[in-house]
Design brief:
Helix content is about 25%, strand content about 40%. The protein has about 110 residues and is an alpha/beta fold. It folds into 2 domains: about 70 residues, ATPase, nucleotide binding domain (Nucleotidyltransferase, domain 5); about 35 residues, no CATH class. Strands 3-2-1-4 form a 4-stranded mixed sheet. Strands 5-6 form a two-stranded parallel sheet. Helix 2 links the parallel strand 5 and strand 6. The longest helix is centred in the last third of the chain and has 15 residues.
Length: about 110
């Protein structure tokens, strides 16, 4: 069995589908409320809990984990980097492809660099 976990972070629901690629079969699907206000991974964890029974209670090791966002700007992205112009541009490009809104840049510095 070659398993893939497909994830869609939506504005309202986080939807997941577990697929057996080698057997061309959908094993399980679930959805949970998207938890944008706290941590988006909370909604993902809730959805994963719902598919546990399809695997006998333990989640398998998924060979592939593919995620997308259909949130229409509901997700916020923070960019952290060394070079502001490059980091901000990369974040904007990533946000365009992920359905997110670029929200904030946070500069970092490495010890010993000036």
């Amino acid at each position: 069995m070659e398993l893939a976990l497909l994830i869609d972070f939506g504005s309202t629901y986080t939807k997941i589908t577990a697929v057996d690629i080698s057997g061309v079969e959908i094993i399980a699907t679930a959805k949970a409320i998207t938890t944008v206000e706290t941590n988006i991974l909370e909604g993902l964890e809730q959805a994963l809990e719902k598919i546990r029974p399809a695997f006998g209670g333990d989640l398998p090791e998924f060979k592939y984990k593919l995620a997308c966002s259909s949130a229409a700007g509901g997700l916020r992205m923070v960019a952290i980097g060394l070079v502001k112009d490059l980091t901000v541009e990369a974040a904007r490009q990533a946000a365009l492809g992920a359905g997110a809104v670029y929200w904030e840049y946070m500069p970092i510095s490495l010890p010993g660099l000036k």
